Amino acid sequence: MAIIIKTPEEIAKMRELGRLAAEALDYIGDFVKPGVTTNELNQLVHDYHVNVQGGYPAPLHYGNPPYPKSCCTSVNHVICHGIPDDKPLKNGDILNIDITIKKDGFHGDSSRMYAVGSISPQAQRLIDITHQSMMAGIAAVKPGATLGDIGHACQQVAENAGYSVVQEFCGHGIGRGFHEDPQILHYGRRGQGPKLEPGMIFTIEPMINQGKRHLRILDDGWTVVTKDRKLSAQWEHEVLVTESGCDILTISPRTGKP
Question: Where along this sequence does the record place binding of substrate (predicted)?
């Protein structure tokens, strides 16, 4: 599969879908508190995509085995692809909600970290450094840079803070397809890999572990957890390579902040 350079018309649609994804994350954050279940959050996301935004949750029935829910909810030591369930969230938990909306044949994909009640300074530091890792990767995006430049930037921030980078999962191109080329690794060496060109759209979504990078996948075929059961965090933005740098397509409409 080749890297798809988006047309101006496709870029306009992707800007709209990125905004919808960010709006959904703004919306669901108001409901994250001790006592709520991730199943309840999942239903709220589903209904918001369908009834308010006029779209569809792309994760639902995606993949093999088919993913059973409308968003991913990864709590504490879950790295990614956590399946919503009926266990109430408790004070001190950290939660990643990863949503992808599909509408008019295009996709919008983003994730954020949420604190459940009052969290520990150690958990907050992990969340903050992971966000810094993502933003460092985004800062490396410009025409003529390479995919390795992005990965190196993400990795340096995480490892300099004493954390580890998950290597088995990565960002991805996105557009008419949920997952397109290229794969965006969150580790790497400067100058390596394909060069970036205006019109590329992809996600940068580092998964950063408090302990070692090693993981295991649970029997449900989806849930990925840290092998040492230490905390993990993830943030995800969609970026468009422009003539002079990049635009983040999934900035929060509510706060205006990435």
Answer: 81, 179
